[in-house]
Structure formats: C-alpha cells, structure tokens
Specification:
about 140 residues, single chain, globular, six-stranded antiparallel beta sheet, mainly beta, three-stranded antiparallel beta sheet
Length: about 140
C-alpha cells in the first residue's frame, strides 16, 4: 500500500519537486505502529523524530538514492508512472523492515519533503545478515491516475 503525502502533491504541481532531476531517496523504517499522517507529516523529521516509526540501522543499511529515475505515461491505465532501479542491501542485518519512506533529499531530515510511505506484502521483513533485494512493483514506484 502506498500513502502519498499531501504536501508532495502541492510541491509536484508547483514544480518544487522534479522526480527525475532531484535526489529522491528511500529510508527503511521499523515502525509497525506507524500510521502515515498525509496531512500533518511534511518532512522526514516529522516521521522519524515525532511518531512511532524509527529508521532501520545496523550492518548493511544506508539510505538509498533512486537510481535511473524515469517518468512515463501508461495509456492503458490512464496514469503517469514514476519508476527507478530496485534497491539492494548486502549482508543486511538491521532489524525489521515495516515500510519505506520516499522523499526528496535536500539538506537534512528537517527540510527534506516526504513523498510517500510504501508498504508491501513482504513486510515486516526481518533481516538476518543475508542480502535483501527490494523490487518495485511492475507498475512502478508511484502511479498518478
């Protein structure tokens, strides 16, 4: 399930976020009790320093930048699609993954606007020292219809 933060929608429409030229990153979170507040959560810090979510940490973890970001039009489903390369973590041992925060990286968590909170059927996923590959859906990372 994907929850898109309302501030992102405004920033997308006014041109403050460009999904293909800005640095779009992913932070993995461990916060099984986290419920996205799409109205009140604006920056990464709102989630990681003020809610029940905590960022994963430990061996093999770092925030990842979406590489090869693309946008396209899916005429069959009447939607715009944002996609990028899948994410890989080597020798991952950093706890349970319950979701992903997608955001535009600016200076730090206090000024980096949230884009979306993404969960998947595979979550929670416990890391145990092996490699972890997180593959985006065939429909892309985000779809706007």
């Amino acid at each position: 399930m994907t929850s898109i933060y309302n501030n992102f929608k405004k920033l997308l429409f006014d041109g403050s976020i460009n999904l293909t030229s800005d640095t779009i990153e992913v932070a993995l979170i461990d916060g099984s009790g986290y419920t996205p507040d799409i109205d009140g959560h604006v920056f990464v810090d709102d989630v990681l320093n003020g809610s029940t979510a905590t960022e994963c940490s430990g061996s093999g973890y770092s925030r990842k930048t979406i590489s090869t970001p693309t946008t396209s039009t899916d005429l069959t489903d009447d939607e715009a699609v944002f996609d990028g390369d899948d994410l890989s973590y080597i020798d991952a041992e950093f706890g349970d993954i319950t979701g992903m925060l997608l955001f535009k990286s600016v200076t730090d968590d206090t000024d980096s606007p949230l884009i979306a909170h993404i969960t998947a059927d595979k979550f929670p996923l416990t890391t145990n020292g092996g490699d972890v590959n997180l593959n985006w859906a065939a429909e892309g990372i985000l779809n706007l219809n």
